[in-house]
Design brief:
It is globular, with a radius of gyration of 22 Å. The chain folds into two domains: 111 residues, Rossmann fold (3-Layer(aba) Sandwich); 252 residues, no CATH class. It is 41% helix and 18% strand. The protein is of the alpha/beta class. Strands 8-9-10-11-13-12 form a six-stranded mixed β-sheet, with helices on both faces.
C-alpha cells in the first residue's frame, strides 16, 4: 500500500473525499484497536437506520459496552440524522468516531448536526507527487490523473475506468442523493464545466450554451464544489491601483476526469491543451499540499481588466507569500513574465515564480524560474517565503 500524506487525528474526525480516492483503503490500514464499521452504501444497513436513526445509537451503545474503541460510519451524508445520534454518543461515552463520505453538501447545507466542533475535518485527495515517489510520471499524470485505481492499469483499462467514473458520479452522488432536479441538464452542464476548466467563468455564456437558467448554472457549480469534484479558485480583488476581475475559476479535482469529459484520453495531448493541464495539475497539487500540512493559507488567481493575469497567488497567515505562473515547457524568456510583471509593479514585496519543466532553477529579471519539483519542495517548507 502507498503511504498517504494525510495523518489521521487521534480524536473523532470527518473524512471526506471524492469517490475512488482511497478512503476505505486508508481506514482499513489504520490501527484502531477494536472497531465497528458501518457502510451506508449497503441497502439493508441504509434502510435499517433510515427508518429508525435511534437504532444506530442502540447498537452503538451495545458495541461500546463490549469494549469497542472506534466506530466508523461510511457514507454518512446519506443519513444526516445519524449525526445527532453520534453527538449524543460522544457526550455519553468514550468512543471515538470516523465519519466518512464523498459529499458534504447535504450536511453543510441542511440542518445536520455537525457535532459542535467535537470532530475535526479532514480531506483525502488523489495521489500526490510525494506519495507516488519514483512511480510518479508527469506526462501520465497530465493525461490520466492520479486516482488510486488507475495506478497499475494500462491505458485501455484506465480509459474504461475514467469513462465509468462520470456515470458512477451521476448515479451515486447526484441522482441517488437527489441533489439536482434535472439530471439531463446537469449531465449536459458537466461537459461544459470540463471544457471551461481553469477559465474565468461567465455564467451567462454557459447558461446560453447549456440551455439552462443562469441561477441553475451557478447552483450546479456549487453542487460540483460540495460533492468535491471541483476546486473553486477565487479572484484576488485587493488592488489600490488596478481594476481587477472578480469572477472565480473552477478546476476539476483530477486531470483524468477532465480529459474523460472532454474526450482527450485517446492520443497525445497537443501543446496548448498540455499547457492548460499542466496548470490544472499543479493548482490541484498545491491545494493538496497546503491541505495536508494544515496550512493557514488560501489560494487565488489575479487578473486585471486589461487582461494581465497570474495563475496563482498564495496568501498565508494574512499576507501574500508567492505569485506563480505555470509554463509547461523548459525554455522561458522575458515575454513569459508579462502577467507577473504587471502584478509585481503593485506588489514588489511578493516573491514571483515561473514554474516549468526546466532542468535547473535560475533567475529571470525579478522572478525565480523553478523546475516543478523545486516548486513542490518550496511548498513543503514549514513556512513559505
Amino acid at each position: 500500500m502507498i503511504a498517504r500524506e494525510l495523518v489521521p487525528p487521534a480524536r473523532s474526525f470527518f473524512l471526506f473525499g471524492p469517490r475512488q480516492t482511497g478512503k476505505s483503503t486508508l481506514l482499513n490500514s489504520l490501527d484502531l484497536g477494536r472497531s465497528w464499521s458501518i457502510n451506508l452504501l449497503q441497502n439493508d444497513t441504509y434502510y435499517r437506520f433510515l427508518r429508525d436513526p435511534a437504532q444506530f445509537r442502540r447498537e452503538a451503545e451495545a458495541k461500546i459496552i463490549s469494549g469497542i474503541d472506534w466506530i466508523i460510519l461510511d457514507e454518512v451524508q446519506r443519513i444526516p440524522a445519524l449525526l445527532s445520534e453520534v453527538h449524543a454518543l460522544m457526550e455519553s461515552s468514550h468512543a471515538r468516531f470516523i465519519l466518512s463520505g464523498s459529499s458534504a453538501r447535504k450536511l453543510k447545507r441542511g440542518s445536520a448536526d455537525l457535532l459542535g466542533g467535537r470532530a475535526l475535518w479532514r480531506s483525502l485527495h488523489p495521489f500526490t507527487v510525494k506519495e507516488l515517489g519514483e512511480r510518479f510520471d508527469l506526462e501520465r499524470a497530465l493525461q490520466w490523473g492520479t486516482l488510486p485505481p488507475l495506478l497499475d492499469l494500462g491505458n485501455a483499462d484506465a480509459y474504461e475506468t475514467l469513462e465509468a467514473y462520470t456515470e458512477l458520479y451521476l448515479r451515486e452522488e447526484i441522482q441517488m442523493e437527489g441533489l439536482v432536479r434535472n439530471l439531463g441538464g446537469f449531465t449536459r452542464f458537466l461537459d461544459y464545466a470540463a471544457a471551461y476548466c481553469g477559465e474565468i467563468l461567465n455564467f451567462s455564456s454557459i447558461a446560453k450554451e447549456t440551455r439552462l437558467p443562469v441561477r441553475t448554472v451557478q447552483s450546479y457549480f456549487e453542487v460540483m464544489e460540495d460533492t468535491l469534484i471541483a476546486l473553486r479558485l477565487p479572484a484576488w480583488t485587493k488592488s489600490p491601483l488596478k481594476r481587477l476581475v472578480r469572477h472565480p475559476k473552477y478546476y476539476l479535482f483530477d486531470n483524468g476526469l477532465t480529459n474523460a469529459l472532454t474526450h482527450r484520453l485517446r492520443g497525445p495531448l497537443d501543446s496548448s491543451v498540455r499547457g492548460r493541464l499542466f496548470e490544472q495539475f499543479f493548482i490541484q497539487e498545491t491545494m493538496r499540499r497546503l491541505d495536508y500540512r494544515r496550512a493557514d493559507a488560501s489560494m487565488h488567481y489575479w487578473r486585471t481588466n486589461n487582461g494581465a493575469e497570474v495563475d496563482l497567488l498564495i496568501e498565508e497567515r494574512g499576507r501574500l507569500t508567492m505569485a506563480v505562473e505555470f509554463k509547461s515547457r523548459p525554455t522561458l524568456g522575458g515575454a513569459d513574465l508579462s502577467g507577473l510583471r504587471s502584478f509585481h509593479e503593485d506588489n514588489p514585496e511578493v516573491p514571483c515564480y515561473l514554474v516549468c519543466t526546466a532542468p535547473e532553477p535560475f533567475k529571470l529579471d525579478f522572478a525565480e524560474v523553478l523546475p516543478w519539483r523545486n516548486y513542490l519542495e518550496l511548498l513543503d517548507n514549514e513556512q513559505l517565503p
